[in-house]
Design a protein that fits this description.
The complex is a heterodimer of chains A (about 180) and B (about 170). By secondary structure, chain A is mainly alpha-helical. Chain A is built from nine helices and no strands. Helix content of chain B is about 55%, strand content about 0%. Chain B has helices at about 20-35, 45-65, 75-95, 110-115, 125-130, 135-140, 150-160, 165. The longest helix of chain B is centred in the middle third of the chain and has 21 residues, at about 75-95. The model of chain B has no long low-confidence stretch (mean pLDDT about 70). Classes of the chains: A mainly alpha (about 180), B mainly alpha (about 170).
Chain lengths: ~180, ~170
């Protein structure tokens, strides 16, 4: 926490902002990349969103009040940017965001940047059947191992609600995999 | 029968409903343990190595961009209204030779708005803006009643930078 405080101070100072920002990018680029990737699925789209997220962080770091952890604040920005990206894609194509995700999932098998096994592909299909927020909760809890307390700050949902949603997500995914066994 | 009293109390407690929900939690844990650990996505070679520089360059480039003022506001209508009023005045002068021409005060703003809304005047936004002085832009009031919520929402979704909306 002390390290985070000094990083935030440096980010909010004119003199040290750029150096501190480089450090921030270095520290968080992979975590934020994979978080966004699980939402938008495509590497190039993820790259775009990720860069926009860091630009937003750079421009708005002075608004960070320190009432949450820095990384939960950044995760919230990344989540919102990724969801907005999907929604914009849906609007441009005049389809729902669920249909956008379905189209992305169906293209996954031939995606050069997806090297998943049959079960990993099925898992992505299973996740895509969940409601949007439940997908977020499952991905962040299962793959990123984010604590319920931090998830609560990122998604602005109670810990109890998150636990319940995660449990339901796991059950649905397990049932989907059982019913769609191809491996 | 006398209830057996515990010789010692350890003092530990559990969260509410812990034992009631234990089996459910265990079942979820067992299910999730059978799922793949990784998602299966990969990145191009050296992607993360070159990412930092890309981001820094973009941040520097975005810092240098001049601020773009939105032209599509109701300021346009005030000047469009003035132009329309002038046109209406000229037309009424030309068409009516017997009756005295009303002053600008007699031409209600609603009539002018209707005239514009009916598409009777073809004004390019840039022509209107060309009339504006810098200090007039700065002091101009924005009146929201000319816009429906739907058109505002659509415009914001399409063009506006959402940073101020998303960051709390």
């Amino acid at each position: 926490m002390v390290e985070e405080k000094s990083l935030v101070s440096a980010l909010q100072s004119q003199q040290h902002k750029e150096a501190a920002f480089r450090e921030l990018v270095s520290l968080y680029k992979e975590r934020l990349y994979w978080h966004i990737r699980k939402i938008v699925l495509d590497h190039d789209d993820t790259d775009d969103v990720l860069q926009n997220v860091f630009i937003k962080i750079f421009k708005n770091i002075d608004t960070f009040k320190g009432d949450s952890k820095l990384y939960t604040w950044m995760y919230r920005i990344a989540t919102n940017e990724a969801i907005t990206f999907i929604n914009k894609k849906a609007k441009r194509a005049n389809i729902s965001s669920e249909e956008v995700k379905e189209n992305l999932i169906s293209g996954l098998e031939s995606d050069v940047y997806f090297e998943g096994s049959a079960i990993q592909l099925q898992l992505q299909k299973a996740i895509a059947t969940l409601p949007g927020k439940q997908q977020l909760i499952f991905n962040m809890k299962y793959f990123d191992d984010i604590t319920y307390e931090d998830l609560s700050k990122i998604l602005e949902t109670s810990v109890g609600g998150l636990k319940s949603s995660y449990h339901i997500a796991v059950k649905k995914i397990t049932a989907y995999l059982k019913n769609n066994e191809t491996f | 029968m006398k209830k057996e009293e515990k010789k010692y109390e350890h003092g530990f407690t559990t969260p509410d409903n812990y034992f009631e929900s234990f089996e459910e939690h265990l079942s979820v844990k067992l299910s999730s343990d059978s799922l793949p650990e990784k998602a299966g996505f990969k990145v191009p070679d050296d992607y993360f190595e070159q990412l930092e520089e890309s981001i820094i360059q973009r941040v520097e480039a975005s810092d240098e961009e001049p601020k773009v003022r939105s032209l599509f506001t109701t300021r346009y209508f005030t000047y469009a209204a003035a132009i329309a009023a002038s046109v209406v005045l000229i037309v009424s002068i030309v068409n009516s030779s017997s009756s005295p021409v009303g002053s600008m005060d007699d031409i209600e703003i609603t009539s002018i708005s209707e005239y514009i809304d009916d598409g009777n005047i073809d004004i390019d936004t840039y022509d209107v803006v060309a009339l504006l002085q810098e200090d007039e832009i700065v002091t101009m009031d924005v009146e929201n009643q000319f816009f429906s919520e739907e058109s505002l929402e659509e415009y914001l979704l399409e063009t506006l930078d959402e940073s101020t909306l998303l960051i709390e």
